[in-house]
Amino acid sequence: MMKRWRWPARLALLTAAFASATIALGWWGVPAAALVWGLLSAGGLDGEQLDRAALLAGAAAALAWSALLCAEAWRAPVAGLLHILVDVMRVPAPGLLAVTLFLPSALAWSAATVGATIAPTITQVFVVR
Amino acid sequence: MIAGRTLRLGAAVLMLAGGLAVAARPTGPVPPLGPFLDPVHGVWAVATSAELPRWHRARVLSLHAAVDVRYDRLGVPHIFATTERDAYLALGYVVARDRLFQMELQARAASGTLSEMVGQLGLDRDREMRRLGLPRAAEQALAALQASPSRFEMAQAYAVGVNAWIDAMPAAAVPLEYRLLGRRPARWAPINSLHLLNYMSWLLARDDEELLRARVAARVGRAAADALFPVHAQIQEPIVPSGRHAVMTDVPIPPPGPPDTILAGIARDVALADGPVQNAADAADAADRDDAAILGSNNWAVASRRTAAGHTLLAGDPHLDLSIPSIWYQAHLVVPGTLNVQGVTIPGAPAVIIGFNQDVAWTFTNVEADVLDHFAEVVDDSASPTRYKLDGAWHPLVQRIERYFGPAGEEIAVDTVRYTHRGPLHNVGSRWLSTRWTALDPSPTVDAFLKVAHAKSISEFERAMEEYLVPAQNMLVADRAGSIAIRSTGHFPIRAGDGLGTEIRDGTTSASDWRGYVAPADYPHSVDPSQGFLASTNQEPTDPATGHGHLPYLGSDWPGAWRAVRINELLSNDSAVTPETMRRFQTDRGSARADYFVPFFLAAARRAGVAHTDTPSMRDAIRRLAAWDRRYTSGDTVGGAALFEAAMSELTDRVWARLEPAPGEPRVATPSSLTLAALMRQPRSQWWDDPATTSVVETRDDVLVASLAAAYDTLVHELGPPAHRGWRWDRVQHVNIYHQFRYASLSRIGLPPQGGPHTLSPTSGTGVHGSSWRMVVELADTVRAWATYPGGQSGNPLSRHYDDKLARWMAGELDSLATPSRPSDLSEADTESRLTLEPAR
Prior knowledge:
Oligomer: heterodimer
Strand order of the largest sheet of chain B: 1-32-2-3-8-9-10-11-19-20-24
Largest interface: A-B, 40 and 41 residues
Largest sheet of chain A: none
Shape of chain A: elongated
Radius of gyration of chain A: 17 Å
Structural class of chain B: alpha+beta
């Protein structure tokens, strides 16, 4: 039962973490939080699990920014803004939204992967010292 | 295992590096995507700052006491302060809060630093400004003002207010345009206010009469050029009432003569020096000059004895390039017992420019004065001069290195701008011309506006405005005592010799220099005329035939007489004027120009007889033109306005064909419709003869009939048959109000017009000029005012105040202005937002 809820719970927690990091630090918060997540989650995981942890970070980052956008759309005319941005940037609305969600996702996945991959090396360095 | 891990790490590092690069650095025109797409601090957050919060408090250094700002339902800030300095500081704060990007953009455009914001796109404008010497003039004006700190106190306070907002601005409130450019707002310096006022001079006071005439004389000779662009208007309806109305002066227009070879050389040099881009722009301007390119304005005032309620009335209506956000920002400043002024300011200018207080209301139209002259200089080295000759001796040129930078701080161009004692020196082909321009003189313009805010009578207003220099304005003022007055105010140069500014002068002698300026006592001026009203529409200020003493030369080729004829007719027919009448007149659709020309077309068609007019299309054209009520309305079912304008366009093209460098090319200049009106009374002038038809000599009537026939065919081709209201005026003409970036979603384009060429609310050509601020003030015991402008107070395109005034502006309606004297005068229901500025301890 516990196992069944582990990944959704992690996803929710990570989403909240990315949202908080974005509010506090701006977009830099996403790769920073993902790197920390990668470093922390590496212990005892095999390659496949590491991949899954990184993917989880990517999904959580996209979800976090989606949630933040939805929160803004609830209190402000984001649809009107989207119309303006589509005109100014000459990109279709779905494309602009996709880029908005892909960017944090890519940053989070790559930073989490880097963090998880270098974690054992860092641990080793500390142990040797 | 290790290979897989390395591979994964490599892929992740690459993606992370790529992601961080596009997130942190601009890619071509695309801003850094990280800060741009950030949903909390980035572009998406712009939507959350669209509306002002219900109440906001901010602490500001150097504020003496708390300032209470109440925004009314129109988003207009009413600023209640205890000192004048605090009031102007708060003005800087609130204008920046609504219009920060516009302020910086305009200041950069005027200071020649636009390229630092937009890169190469801004370089041509930057070079123009610096070669004209405007940024240098602002620096000199600043130095002069700093020598007397009390005169500059308000501009400094204003800058403190702007910067206080920049410092306190939440991330979400950074304007959209900065995000699109990937930039942060620059700090505001007091000199920016001077740059902005120079920008108004650049906009309103840089008529190049000499070069225009040189171009025309190069085609048709000097005598014809002088007659086509005369010093005095052909229809006299002067600002200073002369007792004569719509008087046509019958001065014969000489036939086209041989080209003036000397001026042809100058015209050719100017064309070479300007380069193809500038020439294309000049050509478009010159070809449109008559109806589309001239920025006109209206103002009129009615003395208390001619108003229904017995209170003086004043209407102001400056016509400018329309833009959204507007060039104007509404504000009201109150300092109990000291100041209570309301009206419009230019974002960046620390003063109310047009407006009213409790005793006096004022508004302006542009004089269209000739305040810029060129001098042909002799220099020591035609490629890179260091000295110029004056009175037989060599004098050193002042050299100023102008460096232009791009957005990343990289140097993108360097110029050397040289100055004689007259002003900047320009290389024009093989010649060097220096420019003397009143806009380059240090001017206490800001100070004059600050003083008039306190005026209690017409005489106090006019005394305060004696300091005002440029751009020269027809300053209309009305006071609560029932008086009205108008004075053409500004620096008008006194020239040597014939006193005119229509020729390039010899720069090698100081005898060519300006001799000084017309004294304020000699400005065209009228106070409480017997007719009981005053009106100006950029027409010639004084009727030369009535000889009001010695008349100084102010300029030439005056536009505006058609609107003057119309408004004077409306005002003289109404001896019980109301504020509502004033409002209605502002968007009156009648046209004195159509009243003048239409009978000529109809008479020509009648005289031409069956041989020329007995075709279905010509019969229909005549019927429609005759049935037209000569009003530019969407209810014009006969399509008369569209047909008349097309016929006028055909007529203009045919009559002035000799001003085309080659058949089909844009004209070097287009004489005004007043010149065309004068030519109508010379039916056998050689100007009517088509140079392309050597075997026939055309007369006026031939050209009028041919123009009407061609206009009908053109409209059928472009709009289809006229049935079913297909030629409605609002199908032909639109109003287009562009955002500075010209994106459709930020602009408001394709709007219905409120008039036509030369109506009181004129619309013509590309529809980008028009009424930028309409105001009616009634100076009763309690002042009442109504006003609007196309757009809204906010620069945020998602705010309801971005364009909330537009619908009423299009309908010709005005908003009633709140005039609270203290915060409690504005009820909670009428208060949309509050801002409290407190001194930072």
